[in-house]
Amino acid sequence: GPCTECSCSSGREPEKDPSHTKKKENGERLCVPKIFFGTRTHKQITQISRELKRTAYSCVPMTILSSRDYTCIHPVVSNSSNRNEMCVEMLEGKHGRSCSYYHGVHKLCEHHALQPAAKVYQAWDIEDLVGLGRKLRACPYFAARELMMGADIVFCPYNYLLDPQIRDSMDINLKDQVVILDEAHNIEDCARESVSFGVTEGQLRAAREELDVMVNHSIRQEHHEPLRAVCCSLI
């Protein structure tokens, strides 16, 4: 007869079963945590993945999260001064262009060099990923994010773990996971940086001029006047 546990027979949505969910003997779900390994710089990730390659854990599924500065291979976007914005515009199909590299992400994710089941698989670094991406004409930036789903260990710079905005944009959820921070004495500086912001005098003057226009045209004066006062005092 039909399986009574089948979600379709009960009319319920099938539960999401990511690769990190194992079943205990009594049928409960046991979640295997990921290890998030944070380093100060991208260069240190390369050193650590090299060390991982030399251990017995070289074939553990892994990924490296890094910025488009390191992993974008689109000939136009990678040479632009604002890669993030241009990448998003391309993915949204603005100006009628789209990114063929993005559409090839699955080719890179499924390549045997990045699939732990394959005999040739071993720990890799950003250069390996980018080199393979160029060969397959597939985007290393989004492939690395995609590989996070099945990874046991995720390498990334500190700020990906500490900065809530980056965590959100990268879909990083640290609940019940293991977090390792390499050279943790640098954390204070990194935490300060993630809530700091630098502006030039030119930007302040431009902001003040825009706020002048708002106030003079009676647009939400109660909000814009205090902002203008802040700009003036900083200038």
Automatic annotation (TrEMBL):
Coiled-coil boundaries: none
GO MF annotation list: ATP binding; DNA binding; DNA helicase activity; hydrolase activity, acting on acid anhydrides, in phosphorus-containing anhydrides
Key words, A-Z: ATP-binding, Hydrolase, Nucleotide-binding
Biased composition range(s): Basic and acidic residues: 12-25
SMART domains: DEXDc2
Renumbered residue ranges of the record's region Disordered: 1-25
InterPro entries xref list: DinG/Rad3-like, Helic_SF1/SF2_ATP-bd_DinG/Rad3, Helicase-like_DEXD_c2, P-loop_NTPase, RAD3-like_helicase_DEAD
One GO term (biological process): nucleotide-excision repair
Gene3D superfamilies reported in the protein's UniProt record: P-loop containing nucleotide triphosphate hydrolases
Location of the Helicase ATP-binding domain: 1-231
This protein's GO CC annotations: nucleus
Domain of life: Eukaryota
Pfam families linked to this entry: DEAD_2
Protein name in the entry: FANCJ protein
